[in-house]
Amino acid sequence: MLATKKYPTALPVKNFIQNGNTLEKFIKPQPIDHEIEIEPNSLLMSKTDLHGTIEYSNDYFIEVNGYQESELMGRTQNIIRHPDMPQIIFQMLWEHLQNHQNFSALIKNLAKDGRYYWVLAHFKIHNNQNNYEVGNYYAYRYAAPKTGVVEIEKLYKKLLEIEKQRGVEASKKYFVGFLEERAQSYEAYLNELTGHNRPIKRITKAIRNLFK
Ligand SMILES: Cc1cc2nc3c(=O)[nH]c(=O)nc-3n(C[C@H](O)[C@H](O)[C@H](O)COP(=O)(O)O)c2cc1C
After folding, report:
1. Residue 23 falls inside a structural domain
2. Residue 9 CB less than 6 A away from ligand 1
3. 19 belongs to a structural domain
4. Are 75 and 14 in contact, with CB atoms under 8 Å apart?
5. Could you tell me which residues come within 8 angstroms of residue 14 by beta carbon, excluding any fewer than 6 positions away?
6. For 87-132, what is each residue's pLDDT tens digit?
7. Quick one: which of 137, 141, 116 has its CA closest to 126?
8. Do the domain assignments include residue 43?
């Protein structure tokens, strides 16, 4: 399940950001210990190309992250990557997407003003209608259940610590061992943290609303 394939955010780094009509130097926000409360049942949605470059985001995603729409378009999703997130989670995400599989994860994101927010994110592949090949990726994010965050924070802290000391390969091994100890798949573990089957129902509802 956890391969080491390099995922495609290693594109040339764009150091500039489009703010209205002006091009500004992009400076990664300095994280502050202040949480943004995500409204229950509200959706933070974005759509990317196959490199994770943002092509569309909904109003709530823009509002919560605090960027202007023009600042987000054309940038890769790692614009909101929080340094507390272990690399292995994104490695798993990209491996799933590249194998044409959807993926879900609890994610801590970084807003423009340095605040953070937790979401339960569902990443979905989307096929082109003309040739049925994968054309885009979608992310549907909802407020993360608090109890899930308390648990996953401990695990992410440990994974990050291992990554800093011994690299992503070592954190992958730890994560595999962690799941084996519980005799659980990643999916089952996530369901336990977030409430069984709720993600599926939410995705279905969100997609229905989008194409209404
Ligand atoms: C559709 C889609 C949505 C994504 N959403 C997020 C997100 O909300 N937060 C995040 O940190 N990374 C997100 N990513 C993953 C990023 O592209 C990137 O892999 C991650 O931020 C790690 O960045 P890094 O390789 O620079 O460390 C998303 C990727 C895709 C394809």
Report:
1. no
2. yes
3. no
4. yes
5. 26, 74, 75, 76
6. 999 999 999 999 999 999 999 999 999 999 999 999 999 988 777 7
7. 137
8. yes
> What value does the mean pLDDT take over residues 46-62?
96
Question: Which of 77, 103, 117, 171 for mutating ligand 1's site (highest number of atoms within 8 Å of CB)?
Answer: 77
Q: In whole angstroms, give the CA distance from residue 87 to residue 69.
A: 26
Beta bridge partners of 35: 116
Q: Which of 94, 110, 117, 105 is nearest to 193 (CA)?
A: 105
Residue 114 lies in a domain: yes
Q: Is 86 in the pocket of ligand 1 (CB under 6 A)?
A: no
Binding site membership of 42 for ligand 1 (Cβ less than 6 Å): no
pTM: 0.87
Place 201 in a pLDDT band, splitting at 50, 70 and 90.
low
**What integer pLDDT is reported at residue 61 of this predicted model?**
98
Domain that holds residue 53: 33-210
Read off the CATH number of the domain in which 48 is found.
Answer: 3.30.450.20
- Other beta carbons less than 10 A from residue 82's beta carbon: 16
- Domains: count for the chain: 1
For residues 88 and 2, the answer to whether their CB atoms sit within 8 Å is: yes
